[in-house]
Every structure is written in structure tokens, then in C-alpha cells.
Design goal:
210 residues, Metallo-beta-lactamase, Chain A, seven-stranded mixed sheet
């Protein structure tokens, strides 16, 4: 499986000629959906889903997401399917398991949105805007490193709870170069401590996962 980092919270996975895209939001630039067979979307916030982009996508595209967002995508031509915690399914030749139900708490006056995390091929876990511990082995973790709903100590605690062999930064599109440098330093410190690969991928950078 090849993983390519796109802007902010989006990644593109490719395997055996199939393409699976996760959380193509409005902060994501470029033709991320070109050639895509399926899309996984964790929740309804605009930095994770670009509804206008999905409206112009191929009707053959399959979208898998939580119930609240599925309702908001009623006018999208692609096939939209609802998933919940505990579900498992096949998407574009990838096996996917669903963990989690709710977005992390942010502003006290804002309702908490639904949020589902995806474990792809029992290799890569993407929690969305939550710090869900799935309770299964996670070889590769996409770890949130910056958000209004979190602080860096929670990122480190999450890495220590999951203890992945590899962890790559996600949800980092609102940081300037100074902030990104801090993320790099903290991930390097934890990488050395856990003797694991933990770092930030540059936008457009690809890695091959086992």
C-alpha cells in the first residue's frame, strides 16, 4: 500500500491499481479525487469534506461515512454509504474496520459531531478528529498534531497509548513553519523514546507501507 500525504487532513492510498482517498477537505489542493475508486470521510467539518468537490465527482465513486454527513450528501451523485463503530467493509479492494463514534470536544457551546475512525487493511489507522484507541494492533497511525480541540501533550499521550511502529502527522494544515517545526521536534523526541518511525510527511510525499 502506498500512502501519499495531501494538504491538512487528507491522504490518498493506492494498492493493486485501486485508489482510496481519506478526508478530502477544503484545505486539500490538487486533483486528489482523480482516478479515485472510493472515499472515506470521518465527519462533517469542512476541513475534512469538500461537498462541492464531491458534487462534481464520478457517479461511480463510493463514499463511506457517518450518518450525519451521509444525510448532508444527499445531492452528491456518488454512492454514499453509512458506517458505524464496529462495522467492517471492503472499499476499492481495501478492507476497512470502523472505530469510534464522536468528535473530540472543542468549544463548550458547539455540539459534538459524529466522527468515525478507519483502520485500513489492519495496517493504517486514521482517527479523524478524535483520539480513539481502537484496542487492536495499529502498525501505522495517522496522528493529529494540531487542532482547536487538542494540545500537544494529548498527541504524545495518544502515541504512547497506541505505540505504533510508524506514525505520521495529520491535521497540521493550519500551522505556519514555526508550528510545523515544533511538531517535527516533538515527533522526533517521541520517535527516539519509542524507537519507532514518527514524523511529518511533506505535502505530496509518499511512503510504502507493508
Amino acid at each position: 500500500m502506498e500512502l501519499t500525504k495531501y494538504g491538512h487532513a487528507c491522504v490518498r492510498l493506492e494498492k493493486d491499481g485501486k485508489v482510496l482517498v481519506v478526508d478530502p477537505g477544503t484545505f486539500t489542493e490538487g486533483p486528489v479525487l482523480d482516478g479515485a475508486d472510493a472515499v472515506l470521510i470521518t465527519h462533517e467539518h469542512f476541513d475534512h469534506v469538500d461537498v462541492n468537490r464531491l458534487r462534481s465527482a464520478s457517479p461511480d465513486l463510493e463514499i463511506w461515512t457517518c450518518e450525519s454527513l451521509a444525510e448532508a450528501l444527499s445531492d452528491v451523485p456518488a454512492k454514499v454509504q453509512v458506517v458505524r463503530h464496529g462495522d467492517d467493509f471492503q472499499a476499492a479492494g481495501f478492507s476497512v474496520r470502523v472505530f469510534g463514534e464522536w468528535h473530540a470536544k472543542s468549544h463548550p457551546d458547539m455540539p459534538i459531531a459524529q466522527n468515525v475512525g478507519f483502520l485500513v487493511d489492519d495496517e493504517l489507522f486514521y482517527p479523524g478528529d478524535a483520539l480513539t484507541v481502537p484496542g487492536v494492533d495499529v502498525p501505522t497511525l495517522l496522528v493529529p498534531t494540531h487542532a482547536p480541540w487538542m494540545k500537544i501533550s494529548e498527541t504524545i499521550d495518544y502515541l504512547r497509548a497506541i505505540r505504533p511502529a510508524r506514525a505520521f502527522s495529520t491535521h497540521d494544515g493550519m500551522l505556519n513553519e514555526v508550528g510545523l517545526g515544533l511538531v517535527d521536534n516533538y515527533l522526533k523526541m517521541e520517535s527516539d523514546k519509542q524507537d519507532a518511525e514518527m514524523r511529518r510527511l511533506a505535502v505530496g510525499e509518499s511512503v510504502t507501507l507493508p
